[in-house]
Design a protein that fits this description.
188 residues, 64% helix, mainly alpha, 9 helices
């Protein structure tokens, strides 16, 4: 999927997550915080590709990461997603005063990237280092911009036409962890 496709898909996913009230923080978050965070999160997995937007900006990280894991390797896995969440909690959150809606949107953007890449024939290695790839190849061509745009618009329109107060909750353990994080952040 192209960078444009990931950016569009992430914003559509954010609108859907907000409308479904996936987490209380996303449901009531500040759009001026969440939009940049979801956009950044949607670009992070491609840090393993030196030609990507972030790869060109952060070549010192991108080139070694590309040589070590290759494109659509580690950074496109659930292990990397969880690693980002833990790194944020242990290293970034204690040092910087960043609101919980930024954290939730960043993680949502990252996850939206993985889901979007799963829509391509190459899929993603969710269970990396296992070589199993997960794919639902709706997008047939490698760079099908029209297809990427169509899927993003479809998600966005679907979200906008959802009935009011139609919610989907995350599993209780995940929701509890996110709520504890949110409560901790609002105390300071």
């Amino acid at each position: 999927m192209t960078a444009e496709g990931h950016l569009l898909f992430s914003v559509a996913t954010l609108v859907l997550a907000q409308k479904l009230e996936i987490t209380p923080v996303l449901a009531h978050g500040d759009w001026f915080h969440m939009i940049p965070a979801v956009l950044l999160g949607s670009l992070l997995p491609d840090l393993d590709h030196p030609g990507s937007i972030l790869g060109r900006l952060l070549r010192i990280i991108s080139i070694p990461l590309s040589k070590l894991c290759g494109h659509r390797g580690f950074t496109h896995s659930l292990l990397a997603f969880c690693g980002l969440a833990i790194l944020w909690e242990i290293q970034i959150s204690p040092r910087l005063d960043i609101s919980a809606d930024v954290f939730h949107a960043l993680l949502l953007g990252y996850l939206s990237h993985l889901i979007a890449d799963m829509l391509t024939p190459a899929g993603v290695p969710f269970l990396w280092p296992l070589k199993i790839r997960f794919a639902l190849p709706i997008l047939g061509k490698k760079n099908s911009k029209k297809g990427e745009r169509f899927i993003s618009v479809l998600i966005l329109v679907g979200a906008l036409f959802l009935p009011p107060h139609f919610t989907i909750s995350l599993p209780s353990q995940v929701n509890n962890w996110l709520q504890i994080y949110h409560d901790k952040r609002t105390l300071f």
